[in-house]
């Protein structure tokens, strides 16, 4: 196979990112790897997705740092969708919200062109187009979610605060990595206007029920093909423990990765989200769980798999690429008779 990975930018991709580790595993399994940033994509004169792609030499790399260093040294090559078997859309649109707003939809748009040209695109780009912000989460059954208000109206947020016994979480509708996430209570309600102003610069504000279990962090659980990702009887999951005096469980915000036991409650949550994830062609996603509630569904570039591999001593990367190999085999057999969205979760 020739697998292309779309990332935000070759120059800024972090060595420990799940995408880098997946690309390394892809190469170890004998496949060609092409990396391309969003700005490297184009639409060719003959109607295909094109790109300036970086192909690291095939060798055994000791680390993600060595792998990315090799990627940055090679002379990029011009490719088109005709050169690809699989395209993995792994860029995070929220990372481009401020500095490069034009880049937010670019991976999705060009991914749709590639899918039309017969490339297997994961996750399905047509569904990703409707999931570029946290509103996608609201399309899942309400039993999964904390009580939530999405608005830019200060008075509506104040009323929600009263309804929630003067405790709530505020965060942006668009964003990731724990940026602009605040816990509001009776001690800092006086700063509410400033908090809302800071969040609403980038759009709508999410006001969310505060879950007491959040003090213990959250659980990131990977789901592949609508089912919990497993290998050797182990689940691809870990707990993110908040940094001291910080409500955010994001690793970028200083949270600590620790082992976790996957409970029946967590598995029940997966069963509830499974039908829509399957319907939408969401091959690989990350669920963020607090207690018996789902806080977020990351469908673009769920991270943290490196920590799970280290904690569980299980090569989940190989399991993921083996699943991609199977889909590619089906694609060769059936061609366009099976739509991309359906094949993505088979």
Description:
With 346 residues, the chain is an alpha+beta fold. It has three domains: 2-122, Rossmann fold; 147-210, ATP-grasp fold, A domain (Dna Ligase, domain 1, 2-Layer Sandwich), CATH 3.30.1490.20; 213-316, D-amino Acid Aminotransferase, Chain A, domain 1 (2-Layer Sandwich). The protein contains ten helices and 19 strands. The strands form five sheets. Strands 12, 13, 16, 17, 18 and 19 form a six-stranded antiparallel sheet that branches. A four-stranded parallel sheet has the order 2-1-6-7, with helices on both faces. Helix 1 (18-28) crosses helix 9 (316-334). It is globular and about 60 Å long. The two termini are 18 Å apart. The mean pLDDT is 93.
Arithmetic mean pLDDT: 93
For this structure, the CATH topology of the largest domain is: Rossmann fold
CATH class of the largest domain: Alpha Beta
Terminal CA distance reads 18 Å
In terms of DSSP E residues, the strand content is 15-25%
Name the helicity range. Answer: 25-40%
Class of secondary structure makeup: alpha+beta
Helix and strand succession? Answer: EHEEEHEEHEHEHEEHEEEEEEEHEEHHH
Shape: globular
Helical run tally: 10
The strand count comes to: 19
CATH-defined architecture of the largest domain: 3-Layer(aba) Sandwich
Number of domains: 3
Unreliable stretches, pLDDT < 50, 5 or more residues?
none
Radius of gyration (CA) equals 20 Å
The largest sheet is: 6 strands, antiparallel
